[in-house]
Amino acid sequence: xxxxxxxxxENSDTAIKCGECGTELSSPxxxxxxxxxxxxxxxxxxxxxxxxxxxxxFEAGFHRANWPAIGRWLDASVSPMDLEAAYNEAxxxxxxxxxxxxxxxxxxxxxxxxxxxxxxxMAQARWLLSYSGHIAATIKHxxxxxxxxxxxGRDVLLLFSDEDDYYQYLSHHSPDGEQAGSGGVCxxxxxxxxxxxxxxxxxxxxxxxxxxxxxxxxxxxxLPLWLNEGIAVTVQKAIAPPESGVTQNDYSRLYISMMxxxxxxxxxxxxxxxxxFWTEENIQTFWAGTSFFxxxxxxxxxxxxxxxxxxxxxxxxxxxxxxxxxxxxQPDDAGQSAMLDIFNTDLGDLAGTFLGEGNWRPxxxxxxxxxxxxxxxxxxxxxx
Length: 384
What we know:
This protein is an alpha/beta fold. It folds into 3 domains: 1-29, no CATH class; 53-220, Collagenase ColT, N-terminal domain (Glutaredoxin), CATH 3.40.30.160; 248-383, no CATH class. It has 14 helices and 9 strands. The protein has helices spanning 67-77, 83-102, 122-143, 163-171, 202-217, 225-239, 248-258, 268-277, 283-288, 297-316, 319-328, 336-343, 347-355, 364-374; strands at 2-3, 10-11, 56-59, 62-65, 107-110, 114-118, 155-160, 185-187, 193-197. The strands form 3 sheets. Strands 5-6-7-9-8 form a 5-stranded mixed β-sheet, sandwiched between helices. β8 and β9 (193-197) form a beta hairpin. α1 (67-77) packs antiparallel against α2 (83-102) and α6 crosses α10. The radius of gyration is 22 Å and the shape is globular. The chain starts with a strand and ends in a 10-residue tail after the last helix.
């Protein structure tokens, strides 16, 4: 445990900032010198590469794995007690194929918790691998019993140095049409894994890892997208290292430490952008989740509004109530029924706390029209 030098609260060994006052506990970016050469990867002992060859095909520049077929082969060929290790070998086999697809200086590292593909300096790569393992444990502790515990295989993180490669990789998993810019994606299809673009700094990569690992821990729940993203942003800001530059959160912590003052949900300029953007009509795109995929202001303000609503929920209920909401919320009504049952609160009223007077509640027919306009299949993973 790490004691905060400011308020004295005990925090977990993997915490970056104090959970009580937000004071930075330690510098996460102290990188020890290590060998520059990537280690040799072990040969598989439980899987047969030739037998699994038909489970991989090349599409849109990358090898794609047929994970249902791989799973069937593993279930039939590997003893139950070896299944976890066999999935690790299968995941490593797949990632080594991606390394060959990317070429250049890409290499693969693995730990007990994760597999990382990247081409960064070895010291940075080892730090990111270690950080991802430690921070995953912290996220699971924060989420409690709702965190996904039944997955087989290590976490897989793909770190792309070229943005064209990143978006080309995502195109296989994305709805047709323009892609909103992203700092990372947790991909649910097949073997749940994380893809992140490298944008030049460890702080940014660490923030993306926290955000996407939170999604990874929630991947088993059919959450409305606003709730899923709101939780990920909230966890990211709570435990990831602060990104460069002075932020609203920095000012808030400063004022809180100086006086018994509670900051607003957000500062004026961003709040005014929300008030100007959201209407009783386009709020339905937010509840439907399609607004997150519209490039520009819609994408940015959707993440911001989701964070606001999660903060409002946290203020209204207990941790047990919030966990119950996560287990009950469904995307087909944006979580409205679960909100009424658990919090005795209408989502429209919750949104109105921030947006002001208006008919902000989710409307099922309007949400269906949003999904149809986006070309989404309302029965598939695009609603998650």
